[in-house]
Amino acid sequence: MTTKYQYVKQCSCCDDRFSRMNLPAINAKHQGALTKLLKKQVTQMRMKGDFSLMLADGVIAGFYYQYASAAEELKAEKLCNRLYDAACEFYDELMQDDAVWTYGEAV
Predict the structure, then answer these.
(1) Nearest to 18 by CA among 58, 47, 56
(2) What's the rounded Cα separation, in Å, for the pair 27 and 6?
(3) Are 63 and 81 in contact (CB under 8 A)?
(4) Which of 29, 34, 48, 106 could form a disulfide with 68 if both were Cys (CB 3.0 to 4.6 A apart)?
C-alpha cells in the first residue's frame, strides 16, 4: 500500500476523494485563527481543494480536505503532516500562557 492511500479516502456515494485527520482538542473560539493558519499552509502548497475544520461539542476535533485533482492527492501525506504540525504548534502556543487552560480556554 502506498502512503497516498493511507491518507486519501474515497466517498462511497459521490466518489470524491478527501483526507480527514484528528487534531489536538482546541476550543472552538479559536476556529477563525486556526482556519486562517491552516488555509495559509494549503495555499503555500498551491492546493485548491476545499478545507474545513471539524467541530464537536464546542471543540475543534480535526480537519477535512477535499482534493481538487489527482495531482493534489499525490501530496496527501505532506499536506496532512504539515497541517497537523501547524495545529500542534498552535495548540502549544495556547498552552504556554500563564493561565490554566482547558481545551484552549482560560479557566
Answers:
(1) 47
(2) 28
(3) no
(4) 48
